[in-house]
Amino acid sequence: MLIRDLPEDQRPRERLAAEGPEVLDDSSLLAILLRTGARRVSAIVLAQQLLEKFGSLRGVATASVHELSQVNGLGLAKAAQLKAAFELGKRIASKPLERAPEIRSPADAAHYVMERLRYEKKEKFVVLLLNARSRLIKISTISVGTLTANLVHPREVFAEAIANGAESIILVHNHPSGEPVPSKEDRDITERLFKVGELMGVRVSDHIIIGEGKFLSMAQQRLMSSPGIPPQRKKR
Hints:
about 240 residues; DNA polymerase, domain 1; Cytidine Deaminase, domain 2; five-stranded mixed beta sheet
């Protein structure tokens, strides 16, 4: 059955307009993005085939344009539409609010990078730059790839911090395995950057590892020197 053959109150776009996007299942939301189906296949059926092929909405989101376009009835144009929609969602989720948010805890820090990093297939190392009131100035990507001392160099980390006038920084990277357990390399890099930060006058407050919907704070776990989110200064 094609979407136009459904009763109006069961069509995805009409339901979204009348009841909001929250009431729609994954296949209906994907069908809206796809707009049309293929020959003798509705957009909803095509969306269901996508979810079945890639296993979940996350699987669809992380599939490449080439992988998506191989699905019968999808093609390059529809694949690009889907990738653009998922990328916009990631950017909205990770972009700081107009009024810079305060980072009061490891959970606050993890919140602002979780959607950006949890689906990455490679390790990505980013730094949260904070001002004197622990408000987020910027999120900077330092490296992509398996973490090594050569890949994550203090020069790049602290050049960003100094250029943006950061008083403190929080190190963050993801584990594509989904388990945020720190490796020896993670600990070594943290200690190295912490010591350089002391010399540079920029406090390294924490190193947070992002997993699949969960995170680990090396400061909370006492896995780094002098840990802790920087204290709040009193407002004048």
